[in-house]
């Protein structure tokens, strides 16, 4: 039941072994930045642990000799219902950074999410992906011009979608990052921003345009009620990624006007039925149930526990949009459980970073291969041959006292 895309690595047969192998290959600052969650890390831990509440009800004697694990996403066939979640600054893990991830995604037939705070430009990453699909994660900046330009570049490069991250109105408190005084080493840069040659469609330098917009803001603030001043200066993730002004009415409509029809607009970071309904109401193309890998609001529900209410809300609408999930997926059985609870697709973050730190492109392929093999095995042992047949009849939920209930 294995395929021949990548050889097995006998030192590393699980994602948990990969995590340990990667830990030895990263410096402390990088390891802490990649691995930690916000505050005490309880949501990070629960994202993983919550999968244990669900157990699989296998069916037998079903001829599983031919299993198809593939699904459609962004008009392409993906080898498994799993993609690489956008994670920032991948050159911290390996010199080839996002290029290695892109090559591995292409090799494994898996869609790639690229962080807008990547250490490789979005054009170079798309070059490595070729015709293979990619989605650009977006932090919508208060200073809209930067975002507008980035969206135009993504469109031109051929990205299929933007994923607007909506769970970062402010950045979560990450104590190790604070203690380590995290900063990007001087040989690396956030490659999509702070480029001297950035200009707009009329050839006006963006930095000049922003300066004049900010001048305008200062002047109007003398006569109007006090307003926030958007961050100025070089774009860094601490200053620019969080945007406390983001809101449904103004920002989603604006983003759709910039992206459609060439690129879809998804929202990443939905955790409630109420927001899922608002997302449907505002016509987004898809939802990712996410708590940012436990890095934002500590104490938030594990994503697999938030998923059912989001799915129910979305399915109650006349237009059925896809619901994806990320956070804590470490096994093929986790992918199966998320799908059984109604997700259409899952994304993984840290396991890919661990693969990258372990062996660059080969390590990312290994991470994806382990998850693919485990998922295929799980489908076979559960008696399912097509992804669309995975439903809640294959799961039971166990409470703390061990009481088992059907879903
Ligand atoms: C080191 C790191 C950097 C991340 N950077 C981004 C980012 O730039 N944009 C974003 O929307 N999410 C970012 N995320 C969150 C991931 O997209 C994803 O939601 C999360 O990693 C999923 O959880 P998992 O790591 O348990 O799979 C980051 C996560 C990690 C661990
Ligand atoms: C704020 C980002 C640039 C990175 C991020 O989302 C993260 O570190 O979780």
UniProtKB/TrEMBL annotation:
Domain FMN hydroxy acid dehydrogenase as annotated: residue spans: 7-400
Active-site residues from the entry: 292
Molecular function, one GO term: FMN binding
Protein name (Swiss-Prot/TrEMBL): Oxidase FUB9
Keyword field: Flavoprotein, FMN, Oxidoreductase
Lineage: Eukaryota, Fungi, Dikarya, Ascomycota, Pezizomycotina
Binding site for glyoxylate: 33, 139, 174, 292, 295
Organism, as annotated: Clathrospora elynae
Record PANTHER family: 2-HYDROXYACID OXIDASE 2, S -2-HYDROXY-ACID OXIDASE-RELATED
InterPro entries in the record: Aldolase_TIM (IPR013785), Alpha-hydoxy_acid_DH_FMN (IPR012133), FMN-dep_DH (IPR000262), FMN_HAD (IPR037396), FMN_hydac_DH_AS (IPR008259)
Similarity comment text for this entry: Belongs to the FMN-dependent alpha-hydroxy acid dehydrogenase family.
Cofactor(s) required, per the database record: FMN
């Amino acid at each position: 039941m294995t395929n021949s895309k990548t050889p097995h690595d006998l030192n590393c047969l699980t994602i948990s072994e990969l995590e340990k192998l990667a830990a030895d290959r990263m410096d402390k600052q990088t390891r802490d930045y990649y691995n930690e969650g916000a505050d005490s890390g309880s949501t990070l831990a629960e994202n993983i642990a919550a999968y244990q509440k669900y157990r699989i009800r296998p069916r037998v004697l079903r001829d599983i000799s031919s299993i198809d694990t593939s699904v459609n996403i962004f008009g392409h066939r993906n080898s498994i219902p799993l993609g690489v979640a956008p994670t920032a600054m991948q050159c911290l893990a390996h010199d080839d950074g996002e290029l290695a991830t892109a090559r591995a995604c292409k090799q494994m037939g898996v869609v790639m999410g690229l962080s807008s705070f990547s250490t490789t430009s979005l054009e170079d990453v798309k070059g490595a992906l070729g015709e293979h699909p990619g989605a650009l994660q977006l932090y919508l900046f208060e200073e809209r011009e930067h975002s507008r330009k980035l969206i135009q570049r993504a469109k031109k490069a051929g990205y299929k979608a933007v994923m607007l991250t909506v769970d970062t109105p402010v950045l979560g408190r990450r104590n190790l990052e604070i203690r380590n005084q995290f900063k990007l080493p001087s040989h690396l840069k956030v490659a999509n921003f702070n480029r001297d040659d950035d200009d707009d469609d009329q050839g006006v330098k963006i930095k000049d345009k922003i300066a004049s917009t900010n001048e305008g803001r200062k002047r109007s603030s003398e006569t109007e009620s006090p307003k926030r001043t958007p961050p100025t200066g070089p774009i860094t993730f601490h200053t620019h990624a969080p945007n406390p002004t983001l809101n449904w009415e103004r920002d989603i409509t604006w983003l759709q006007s910039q992206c459609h029809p060439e690129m879809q607009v998804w929202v990443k970071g939905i955790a409630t039925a109420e927001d899922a309904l608002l997302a449907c109401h505002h016509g987004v193309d898809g939802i990712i149930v996410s708590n940012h890998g436990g890095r934002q609001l500590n104490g938030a529900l594990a994503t697999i526990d938030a998923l059912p209410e989001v799915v129910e809300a979305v399915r109650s609408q006349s237009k059925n949009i896809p619901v994806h999930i990320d956070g804590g997926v470490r096994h093929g059985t986790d992918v199966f459980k998320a799908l059984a609870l109604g997700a259409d697709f899952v994304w993984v973050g840290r396991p890919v970073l661990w693969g990258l730190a372990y062996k660059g492109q080969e390590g990312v392929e290994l991470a994806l291969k382990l998850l693919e093999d485990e998922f295929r095995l799980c489908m076979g042992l559960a008696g399912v041959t097509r992804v669309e047949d995975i439903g809640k009849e294959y799961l039971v939920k166990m409470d703390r006292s061990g009481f088992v209930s059907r879903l």
